Amino acid sequence: MTMSNRPGVEGNGATNALATIPNMLSLVRGLLGPVVLTLILSEASWALWTALALMIIAEATDYVDGEIARRYDQESEIGRLADPVCDSVYHLSVFLAFLAMGWMAAWMLFVIYARDLMVPYLRAFARQSGHDLKVLASGKIKTAVHAVAQIGIVTIALGLLGSDIRIDGPAPTILLIAAVAASVYSLADYVAEVGRLVRP
Fold it and tell me: Is the Cβ–Cβ distance between 104 and 98 less than 8 Å?
């Protein structure tokens, strides 16, 4: 049995300890989702400004936690599971706020939610078949498109892009369609990858 001098550290250098900085940043991102949702639903101008600031912070943590994990060798199985879960909780919370505000169609949220619900099952299926389904580039693209769409829509709601670009105009719909398309693309990519892995 390979032992390490540091508690919670495996022989390959990656830690499975829960209380690492990347894991805590992921947790903070997940917790910010309901907070941003509540702020958006309040409809107050100060609340939307606060929501926008927190959204920028949340997206920054998504970048920073990965960088810290790689640079300081804190990548872990827990982190690999927690990061996408916290991403989903955060982004779905914001999209739910958009739905409640009438900024988003229900079918769009359904497609986005379906993707985030199915990928963990695909990952579990791959593992049962003896394969490790890692995070694909399409998943990272999906997350980035969702971030741009969400921040863009709140920016539009605040009137920061001018009076010609309104929350009831076509711009938010275009952003949301891009978010839906990114989810569909990512799901198709994960399904194809699982098919490739389990093919006899």
Answer: yes
